[in-house]
Amino acid sequence: MRLHIKTKGFRLHLLLPTRLVLSRLGLAITLRACRRYVTLTPQKRSEVLRLLGGLRRQCRGLTLVDIRTQDGEEIRLSL
After folding, report:
1. In the list 6, 16, 20, 47, which could disulfide-bond 1, CB 3.0-4.6 Å?
2. CB of 16 within 8 A of CB of 1?
3. Coil, helix or strand for 28?
4. Which residues contact 8 (CB under 8 A, 6 or more apart)?
């Protein structure tokens, strides 16, 4: 998984292990951060992990987030 952040005076390029991000721990952290908006039962959590694993294999290089502002700032997250 690749994360690119670019602003006027700052650039950051991170290569994150996809397996770490799409793991039970990664899902738990995401759900904890979004607990106000999203609730999943344990059965649904395992289904989400299975679907994300399949997506990772089938769609390498898929851009998940692509944000560009008028100021020239850019954030891109891809598999």
Report:
1. 16
2. yes
3. helix
4. 71, 72, 73
Angle of helix 42-58 relative to helix 24-33, nearest 10 degrees? 120
- Rounded Cα distance between 18 and 1, Å, is 5
The residues, any chain, with a CB within 8 Å of residue 13's CB and separated by 6 or more, are 2, 3, 4, 5
pTM for this structure? 0.61
Asked whether 2 and 77 are in contact (CB, 8 A), the reply is yes
- CA nearest neighbour of 56 among 12, 16, 14: 16
Measured distance CA(68)–CA(65) in Å, rounded: 10
**Tens of pLDDT along 11-59?**
999 988 877 777 888 888 888 888 888 888 889 888 888 887 787 778 8
How far is Cα 41 from Cα 32, in angstroms, rounded to an integer?
13
